[in-house]
């Protein structure tokens, strides 16, 4: 499926290919395989050996990268308009013709293990990974994305190649293009480039939904280091396609601010005023991501020295309860609404981010267009935010995690 938007304010084109394969497509023993495979797609094909991306794009000022998350693996190039055909050729070629040699697998394994160890130096990542694993009993969202270091070390070239052949096909991908040409012309060129790539029979095992959580779960992560203590709380919540998704994003803005790089919105948020200004925490955050299946609404607070985890946790829960119990006044909601709409309008001002925004909405099922998502956010009311808080912040759906730093 190919989607395109015309954007004439710069002579560039941003091409994104979104594959429906990520952490949710892995089973125990193969966690991190989609992310490992992402790295291997930069190692060349018979027609375009390793280094061709640099040779064909870098000298023209192009930008490219890739990422893997729970739902997708995505590759993009933002190129001068006259290099659009080149970018299309590279993506169509590596969709089915990646080499994935044993030698490159072994070399990249070291890189990915090092990447994993780098994440482990971040207490927020360590706690978040453990909280996710505890929160989910059945759904593969509990496995994370980068995978276990031990499983990364055991992955084989043949296993990676089988994963590639199973999931990398035109009928398992979205192609999103934004750039300096008519949308019809951008689509026609992309369709021609991928026309020779055969679709595959996609046989995916049924993915059962996560069963309802029956009560609060708790965990503690301890690690040596100089980091401050952390409290995280995750609540099971809705998928991106749920009608409540827009209200849940508004709820995250009300709690922690955000949108358009406006730092003031964070300082005026509920959690900042309730925890940072009262000297219980040094940092706070709240997030609701757009995912294919129901995921987590997460909150995090870095505990100020001399304050207990319990005091911070109780303050967090009190702010959540207050938001569920009391209507938001007009002044606060106007500030939340500005931040919410800015989170769509400001990043979408650049061609690359507009393409990313459209692809993320399409691949998650949140909305069929950026405009439709903006309209959904604009329709959110104070009652919607309060209702989302009431539905989400319930004891039986929450998982609480404490990170406790220990002396080295």
Comma- or semicolon-separated keywords:
408 residues, alpha+beta, Cytochrome Bc1 Complex, Chain A, domain 1, five-stranded mixed beta sheet, 16 helices, 43% helix, globular
Description:
This protein has helices spanning 33-40, 52-57, 84-94, 102-120, 123-135, 149-154, 157-167, 183-194, 245-256, 263-267, 270-276, 309-325, 330-345, 351-364, 370-378, 382-392, and strands at residues 2-6, 12-19, 63-68, 73-80, 173-179, 217-224, 230-236, 281-288, 296-303, 398-406. It is globular. With 408 residues, the protein is an alpha+beta fold. The chain has 16 helices and ten strands. It has two domains: 2-194, Cytochrome Bc1 Complex, Chain A, domain 1; 217-406, 2-Layer Sandwich (Cytochrome Bc1 Complex, Chain A, domain 1), CATH 3.30.830. The model has no long low-confidence stretch (mean pLDDT 93). The protein is 43% helix and 18% strand.
One letter per element, helices H and strands E, the order comes to: EEHHEEHHHHHEHEEHHHEEHHHHHE
CATH architecture of the largest domain: 2-Layer Sandwich
Q: Residue ranges: pLDDT <50 for 5 or more in a row?
A: none
Please indicate the count of domains: 2
User: At the first level of CATH, what is the class of the largest domain?
Assistant: Alpha Beta
Separation of termini?
53 Å
| Whole-number mean pLDDT | 93
The share of residues in extended strands comes to 15-25%
Question: At the fourth CATH level, what is the homologous superfamily of the largest domain?
Answer: Metalloenzyme, LuxS/M16 peptidase-like
Rg over C-alpha atoms, rounded to the nearest angstrom: 22 Å
Continuous helix count? 16
The helix content, as a percent range, equals 40-55%
CATH topology of the largest domain, which one? Cytochrome Bc1 Complex, Chain A, domain 1
**Helix- and strand-based class?**
alpha+beta
Largest sheet: 5 strands, mixed
Q: Order of strands side by side in the largest beta sheet? A: 1-5-2-4-3
């Amino acid at each position: 499926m190919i989607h395109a938007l015309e954007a004439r304010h710069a002579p560039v084109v941003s091409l994104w290919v979104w594959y429906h394969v990520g952490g949710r497509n892995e089973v125990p023993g193969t966690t991190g395989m989609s992310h490992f495979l992402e790295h291997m797609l930069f190692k060349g094909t018979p027609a375009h050996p390793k280094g061709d991306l640099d040779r064909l794009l870098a000298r023209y000022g192009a930008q490219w990268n890739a990422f893997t998350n729970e739902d997708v693996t995505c590759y993009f190039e933002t190129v001068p308009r006259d290099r659009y055909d080149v970018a299309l050729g590279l993506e169509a070629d590596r969709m089915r013709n990646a080499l994935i040699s044993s030698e490159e697998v072994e070399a990249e394994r070291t890189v990915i293990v090092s990447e994993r160890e780098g994440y482990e130096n971040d207490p927020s990542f360590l706690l978040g990974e453990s909280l996710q694993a505890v929160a989910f009993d059945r759904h593969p969202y509990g496995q994370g994305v980068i995978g276990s270091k031990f499983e990364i070390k055991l992955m084989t070239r043949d296993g990676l190649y089988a994963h590639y052949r199973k999931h990398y096909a035109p009928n398992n991908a979205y192609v999103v293009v934004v750039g300096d040409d008519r949308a019809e012309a951008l689509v026609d060129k992309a369709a021609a480039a991928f026309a020779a790539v055969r679709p595959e029979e996609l046989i995916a095992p049924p993915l059962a939904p996560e069963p309802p959580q029956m009560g609060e779960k708790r965990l503690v992560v301890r690690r040596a280091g100089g980091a401050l203590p952390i409290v995280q709380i995750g609540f099971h919540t809705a998928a991106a396609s749920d009608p409540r998704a827009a209200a849940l994003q508004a709820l995250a803005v009300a709690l922690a601010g955000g949108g358009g790089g406006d730092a003031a919105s964070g300082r005026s948020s509920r959690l900042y005023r309730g925890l940072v200004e009262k000297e219980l925490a040094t940092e706070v955050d709240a997030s609701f991501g757009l995912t294919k299946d129901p995921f987590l609404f997460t909150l995090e607070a870095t505990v100020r020295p001399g304050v207990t985890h319990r005091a911070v946790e109780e303050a967090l829960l009190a702010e959540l309860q207050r938001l569920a119990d009391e209507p938001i006044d007009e002044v606060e909601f106007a500030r939340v609404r500005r931040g919410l709409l800015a989170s769509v309008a400001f990043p979408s001002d650049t061609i690359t981010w507009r393409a990313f925004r459209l692809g993320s909405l399409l691949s998650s099922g949140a909305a069929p267009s950026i405009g439709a998502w903006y309209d959904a956010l604009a329709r959110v009311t104070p009652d919607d935010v309060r209702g989302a808080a009431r539905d989400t912040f319930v004891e039986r759906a929450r998982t609480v995690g404490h990170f406790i730093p220990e002396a080295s």
